[in-house]
Structure formats: C-alpha cells, structure tokens
Amino acid sequence: MTRTLMTTVAALALCGTAASAQTVGFSQIGSESGWRAAETTLTRQQAEERGYQLQFSDAQQRQENQIAAIRSFVAQGVDAILLAPVVATGWDSVLQEAQEAEIPVVLLDRRVDSAEDLYLTAVGSDLVHEGEVAGQWLVDQVAGEDCRIVELQGTTGSSPAIDRKAGFEAAIADHENLEIVRSQTGDFTRAQGKEVMESFLQAENGGADICALYAHNDDMAVGAIQAIKEAGLAPGEDILVVSIDAVPDIFQAMAAGEANATVELTPDMAGPAFDALEAYWADGTEPEKFIQTESRLYTQADDPQGEYDRRKDLGY
Amino acid sequence: MSGTLQRIAPQLIALAALVALVSVFYPAFLSVQMNDGRLVGPVIDVLKRGAPVALLAIGMTLVIATRGIDLSVGAIMAICGAAAAWALASGWGTGAALALALAAGAGAGLWNGLLIAGFGIQPFVATLILMTMGRGVAQLITEGRILTFTDPGFSWLGSGTALGLPVPVWLWLLAGLFVAALMRRTALGLLIEAVGINRRASALAGVNATVLLVAVYVASGLCAALAGIVETADIRGADANNAGLWLELDAILAVVIGGNSLLGGRFSIAASILGALIIQTITTGILLAGFPSEYNLVIKAGLVLVILILQSPRISAEWRLMRDSRRVQPKPAPAKATPTRPAPEDRT
Which residues of B touch chain A, with CB atoms under 8 Å apart? Predict the structure, then answer.
C-alpha cells in the first residue's frame, strides 16, 4: 500500500519537472528470461509515466549489437543512455564516445570493468545481501529451535549461486541451531529443482528430517514444492520454503500456503536510474557510483495474491 | 530370448556394478517401500527420472541404426511441451492437448525425415537446424515465460501412479516393448538395419529406404513428444528455455552405452534403455551420496568413461578370450565337450 502511494506521489511530483520531453536510449541484453522481459516492461512503463521518449534496442545477447546501439544513440543525441551490459569487458571506447558527446550512461543490473568516471552510475542488486535477507528470515522464523536446512543452488559457478549461498551462510553462521545438511545444484530450473528435492527427501528420511528449504531462485522452489507434496508432506508447514527473485508463481504458492518467503530481485532498475538522471539533469548532481536496489522480503502476510495480480502481466 | 540376454549382458553387468557402487555411498539405495499404494525408493526414482532419456533413446536407437543421428530431440521436447501447455491454457481438453503435442512431435520428425531422405542433407546438419530453431519456436509459443497449467489429467502423465509404479515408467516400458516387438516380430528391424549398413544396396534389393528413413525420424519425433509431455506434466508447466536442454546428448550416450554402433546396422532397444537407466543411476546416485555439486559432471564423465572402456571392442575381446579359455581348461580331454565357437554377438 505505502509503495503504491509513494510511486503515485513520485509520479505526480515528476509531472511538474519533466516538462521538456527527454529522450533516453535503452540497450537491453535480450529477452532470455522472464525477469528480463519484466525489466523491459517496467522500463517502458517508467519512461511513459515520466513522459520520456524511450529508444529501445534489443541486443539479442550480442555485445556488438549493444555497441552499435550505443553509437546510434550518441549519433541521435539522446539525453541519456541506459545500458544492461551483456558482458563486463570491452566497453571503454564506446563509453568514451558517449562521454565526449556529454551523454550520461547508467548501467542496469550488471556491472562493467571500465573506469568509474566513464559512466554516471550503476543500478543493481546486491546478491550477497539477498542471501542474507533470506537467511535472516529463517533465523527469526525458527526462533532458536533446531533446523536442518536443504539448499538448492543455482547453476554451479554462476555468480548468483556463489553470492546467494555466501550471503545465506553468513546470516546463519552465528546460529548453531541452523545447519545446511544437503546442498546441490538445481540449475535454476523447475525440473531440476524437483528432481534434486526428491533425492533430498529420499535421503533425509522421507523428508521427516528436513525443517527448511532454501532455494537460490523461485523456479527451483516451485519445482521442489511439488516434490514435497508428492512425498506426502505439506510444503510451507512441514518444510519451510524460502527462495529469492519474487516471480509471480511463487506468490501463488505463498497464497496457497505452500511457500513461506521470497526475497525480491526487483526488475524495476529503471526507476532509481531515472531518479538519478533527473537529479543530474536538474543541477548536475553526481550520484553514488553504485545504487543498490532494495532486496525486499515478502512473506505470506504481505498479500501474496495481490502481489501475484500486480506482477502477472509484466512479462515474467 | 537367451540371445537378447547375451546381447544386453554387458549393460546389465555395468548397471549392477553401478548399483553396488552407489550402495557403498548410500546404503539404502535398493530399499523400496509401499506407501499409499505406490512404491517409493531411490530405485523407483531412477526408473521415473530416467523416463525422458529412455523414451528419447528408443527413437534415437532406430535413427542411429539407419546410420543417422537426431540432434533435435531436446528442442522437439520443448516444442511439444509448449504446445501442450498452450493448448491446456487456452482451454482445450487433456486429450486434445496430448494429440496436439504428439502431432507436433510427428511433424517435427517429418520435417527432419524429409530434409534427410528427400533432399539428402546429412542427418547431423539437418537435425542441427531444428535443434537451434526448435527452441526458438517453443519460446514463441510460450512467449518466453514458463507457461503453467492446472490439469489433473495431464499432470497425471508426469507425476501420477498406476499399479504402484509412476506413470512415466509405464510410458517408457510400454513404448519400448511396443517398438521392440514391432521391430523384431516383423521384418521392419531387419530392413532398418539393412538401410543403415548400406542404403544403396538395400534400395537395389527392393527396400524402400526413403519411406523407411522418414518413418524412423517420425518415430524419433514421437518419442521426443512423449518425453516432452512427461517433463511438462511433471512440473505442470512448459519451460521453453530449459525443457530437454542437452538431453539429445544424453540420449545418444544412452544408445552408445547400449553398445549400438554409431555407424548404423545392428541395434538393441533393450540395451539402449539400459543405457538410459545407467546414466540416471549415476545422476541419482550423485544426488543421494551428497557430494558437492562441483563434482557432479566430473564423476558422471568418469563413470561413463570407465563403462565405455570396459565395453570397448578391444577389452571385450580380451574378456571373451579369458572366458573361453577358462571354459576349455577344466575338461581338456573330451574334445567334443565344449566346442569353442565365437560367442554370438549383437543378437537381439
């Protein structure tokens, strides 16, 4: 509720300032996942609400397409460029060109290894912090009782898997009652999440010895919930389920009482980016070099059905 | 029958050895219990989780017997799953969704078959086209998201139980028995082998190789459709990005572990299915044993390598030599006791 109010207030406030229509170029990686589709949808919505003209370019996972798109944005003389970089390296020269044309560049979601003065700021989420939020929720939830945790990791070696694992482990490190007893990769997919959860249940006394499941993303949690149900247990009660991402389907599971909590990886990276840009346009305020988005925790108490309805049309 | 047993003996031995090995790390591996009228246990999980690869391996065996290869089965799984989920989401019934998925699989197989038999494009290239394109088609159907559905009839195919066993197990069992019977009770298997050994010669001998080749790829497409249905029904959603991803490689591996030659000719469907179960036993075994996930692929590759080396022509020739010499040694006197003949190989 407060969130809706805040955005409404912000939108109203902005109507006054953004009188001259600004043009913003947005070079998106592609549409490889539902989350990214939602990021694109929200960026378009934000631009429309604020009265910007958005030039959108889908790079289809190719850096050369992104570089070409940025060059064309520079040639058009846009007022700002949003870039979701597909890789971290190789951006120096094109960022320099934008800088020479005095066009601020804001990085979304991922970072680059170029010098910090080549871009205005980067907006993104802290993956370690997401894991910490999930771990902290479980610490508070079990309130000192013993809890044997099983963990479904993301794709082995990927940075979300490494960071979300590290964050969660840090959060439960000082609590001896919490222990990760099994941890395996579910490759971020539903099918793998279900298969691996089945083996966890099998290996842990039919699931009777498992108190909680921590999944590195919601999709694996959704698959695991089905495995728990098929094993004759009640997910959300017999086994607590906490995961990360906040995609629509996990809210459906929470509404049905089958999942307990999720940590949001917000696809609204454009909102903070536009806020920073507006301040910059108005009086040249340089924002921090990294703007961390909020990793908000949602539980069954946060109107999961409403959250599902709000998200289902974003393109997830 | 004894011929079949002899043919699949190496696979059976490999599977037994693997089960013994997994039991060392997870002693309860072979325990099976009855729970609410259905069997549960690691072995049942292997049979169930092995279903997609086992189904793919049935079709892949036929394709490989014709000296072909089908790289597109993973993508076909994604297309068929997406088609079924789309049909269910738009209110078609269970039967119609199933029919659509099977039709999509047959259509994809027909496309492959026409490119290969009709235009003479090499199977590797022809199916590579659908492998890359097919996932895009599936993503177009699902619009890039995971298309979920709630249809109890359809999800029964993925996670239901019939006569104590999971439904996917019945699917690959029945599909395997049906195809094997079709191949061996009729001359079809022989004709396919003939095409694989020498397409030109078999055509000259009056075998309609073109029709046979198309039919084989359609069969592979249908098997992929079944596998796609199982996977989609299991998670009650079509995940176009990940459904069947890289499974074509597992299916080919299953056929190879089954002792079938990639150069075509003689084949055994039972051995390929055993190959699929061997792969799944490794996967499930790793999960149950609780190794860190960084080791998964290394362990899997290592075990597959050992199995393939033990089955390699040179090693198996050594084994046969050892066995035959032992058989002869105890009774050297009566010459007629055990005539040393070369062990009948490759008979199904």
Answer: 26, 35-36, 40-42, 45, 49, 143-146, 148, 159, 231, 234-237, 239, 241-243, 284, 287-288, 290, 292-294, 296
Question: In 3D, which of B86, B334, B115, B293 has the Cα closest to residue A153?
Answer: B293
For A147-185, b where at least 16 C-beta lie within 10 A, e where not — what string?
Answer: bebbbbbbbbeeebbbbbbebbbebbeeeeebebbbbbb
pTM: predicted TM-score of the whole model, two decimal places: 0.86
Structural domains in chain B? Answer: 15-300 (1.10.3470)
Minimal Cβ distance to B144: which of A37, A157, A199: A37
Q: Does A226 touch chain B (CB under 8 A)?
A: yes
The two structure tokens encoding residue B48? 């169930």
Closest in B41, B49, B296 to A185, CB measured: B296
Domain range summary for chain A, segments of one domain joined by + = 2-124+266-285, 127-264
What does each of the 316 residues of chain A score in pLDDT, given as a tens digit? Answer: 455 555 554 444 444 444 468 999 999 988 777 788 899 999 999 999 999 999 999 988 889 999 999 999 999 999 999 999 988 889 999 999 999 999 999 999 888 888 999 999 999 999 999 999 999 999 999 988 999 999 999 988 888 899 999 999 999 999 999 999 999 999 999 999 999 999 999 999 989 999 999 999 999 999 999 999 999 999 999 999 999 999 999 999 999 999 999 999 999 999 999 999 999 999 888 899 999 999 999 999 999 999 999 988 887 7
Instruction: Enumerate the residues of chain B whose CB falls inside 8 A of the CB of residue A157.
Output: 294
Q: For domain A127-264, give the fold.
A: Rossmann fold (3.40.50)
ipTM, two decimals: 0.86
Q: Quick one: closest CA in A to B25, which residue?
A: A203
* Domain A2-124+266-285 fold: Rossmann fold (3.40.50)
Q: Is A187 on the interface with B (CB under 8 A)?
A: yes
Cα–Cα separations (whole angstroms), residue B219 to B71, B175, B183, B283: 14, 11, 12, 27
